[in-house]
Specification:
Oligomer: single chain
Strand content: under 5%
Radius of gyration: 38 Å
Shape: rod-shaped
Mean pLDDT: 79
Largest sheet: none
Number of strands: 0
Distance between the termini: 115 Å
Number of helices: 3
Length: about 100
């Protein structure tokens, strides 16, 4: 009897090696894809949050008067006077200075 090729046992062994290699490669590819998709999901979640924070920051800045605004300066003077830090004369002098600008 002349044999041609590795026989049944050899073919089964070769098939097992090929299947195991394919399984290992497939698992590695799957892990890489999962990591990539997780990263993309994190970016998609982070982007709207960053936009929302920027919008909130702009809203807060728009709500606060600029520091050189005479009204805000007068309000701060009134608060200092109410706390007893400024006297009536000091308050009047500062008020006149702000209004003259």
């Amino acid at each position: 009897m002349n044999r041609r090729g590795p026989g049944l046992l050899g073919t089964m062994a070769r098939t097992a090696v090929v299947a195991g290699t394919a399984s290992a490669v497939g698992g590695r590819v799957q892990r890489r894809q999962q990591a990539k998709f997780a990263e993309q999901d994190a970016e998609q979640v982070a982007e709207p949050q960053a936009q929302q924070q920027a919008a909130e920051s702009q809203t807060q800045q728009a709500a606060e008067p600029p520091p050189d605004d005479p009204i805000s300066q007068l309000e701060r003077l009134a608060a200092l006077k109410k706390q007893g830090i400024l006297t009536d004369a000091e308050f009047a002098a500062q008020k006149n200075r702000i209004l003259a600008e």
